Amino acid sequence: MSSVGAASRAFLYCFNKVEVTGLDNLLGVLDRRRNGQRDRGLLTVCNHVSVLDDPLIWGILPLRYAVDVENLRWGLGAHDICFKNRFFSTFFSYGQVLPTHRLWHSPQGGLYQPTIAQAVKLLSSPSSVIKPSDVTFSTNGSDSFVSPSIYAANRHAWVHIFPEACCHQNPENTLRYFKWGVSRLILESEPAPEFVPMFIHGTQDIMPEDRGFPRFLPRIGQRIRVMIGKPADSESLFGHYRTAWKRLVEKSGDPDLLKHDPEAVQLRIDVAKAVRDEIQKLRLSMGFAPDEDETAALADTWSKEPNKRKFKSPVDGSLVNRH
Fold it and tell me: Looking at the record, which segments are called Disordered (predicted)?
């Protein structure tokens, strides 16, 4: 974590022009959470424009934060990329990345996969009872990973998520719809995590989807802009949604019965849109034009996209990479 953080910072500031607005918003939260002084999780949410967004964007953190590993983020990484062999699996596991299946690539994907449950537990308070089945978890029935949430030091953790779940490159940096895994993190974590929205622009020029040879090399000399919003208690932002969720859980008696419940599904849709709205505020504050299509926040709007790995979206003309 420390080595990659230092390398990311060196690349950003030595070879590019970096503008960060609101860095103190994030650093203030991290300072309060140092040395285990935390009573709730931290959820940061950001748009996704480049395959190098994570770890590059964490290069904005001063080096003293990069060596405080227990106070660094847990992320969600594509199982088919980050965990495709033993070397990658070890590297990204040490990098506090959770193996995540994407439905486009795997039937094990979706918001009810074991990895999302791990992320909910990382954000939540430590459990007083650890069952033998809690020590490891499997994402597909054949692999096995140590459950980071069994360690009390990992609870009330910082989890970062890119809810668009794929690289989305558009000249106006428009947003896709946000997938509903982020809704689970907000609705089911106990207590409600602290919430910090982020917006990035410029990393798409470091690794543009239409880049030519040498495709594997990042481009330098780019202008990178990062906007970090003010921290907020998720209860204050999304409290009425959490109250509605708890009411549904009490009514059903079992959260598993709510996987396909119409009210629960609509609640997840509403929460994902509310999170997207917070990121949208940052986008607009950076001078980008408002969405022309008000339905861009809905999954149905994007269902007309082709079943391909890479394509130009018929919705907004953006370059999309599902790798």
Answer: 301-323
